[in-house]
Design brief:
Elements (H helix, E strand, L loop, with lengths): L5 H8 L12 E7 L4 E10 L2 E10 L2 H14 L4 H5 L3 H8 L7 H22 L6
Antiparallel strand pairs: 1-2, 2-3
Helix pairs in contact: 1-2, 2-4, 2-5, 4-5
């Protein structure tokens, strides 16, 4: 297996935005039963902008690192801007992932989308996806 690069290791060893937002405006939970990774993302939204994002991830180093960078990437973005973020953006932000770990970046993209869809649902807004 390919080794992780320094940025992946740093985001795994010292992840940013770990935790839960009480009374979150949007929550998205995704999982991959094959590898056992479960990712839950919490959003705080004000004026259509993500003002805070936190995550709880149970899984491998790549899943935790993907969660960490993805929450950093969506902070201070509008919901529409956050929906544009793809798993490739997450991989690029991490400086790459081994091919067998690319699914972790897909989980991060899906968690963002689910959390925003949950926010829209709570607001009575039809999802824009």
């Amino acid at each position: 297996m390919e080794p992780y690069n320094e940025k992946v290791i740093e985001n795994y060893a010292n992840p940013k935005n770990v935790g839960k937002i009480e009374n979150a405006d949007g929550v998205g939970e995704v999982g991959n039963p094959v590898c056992g990774d479960i990712m839950r993302m919490y959003l705080k939204v004000e004026n259509n902008k993500i003002v805070d994002a936190k995550f709880q991830t149970f899984g491998c180093g790549a899943a935790i690192a993907s969660s960490s960078v993805s929450t950093e990437m969506i902070k201070n973005k509008t919901l529409e801007e956050a929906l544009q973020i793809t798993n490739k953006d997450v991989v690029n932000e991490l400086g790459g992932l081994p091919p067998v770990k690319l699914h972790c970046s897909v989980l991060a993209e899906e968690a963002i989308r689910k959390a925003i869809a949950d926010y829209y649902s709570k607001q009575g807004i039809m999802s824009r996806e």
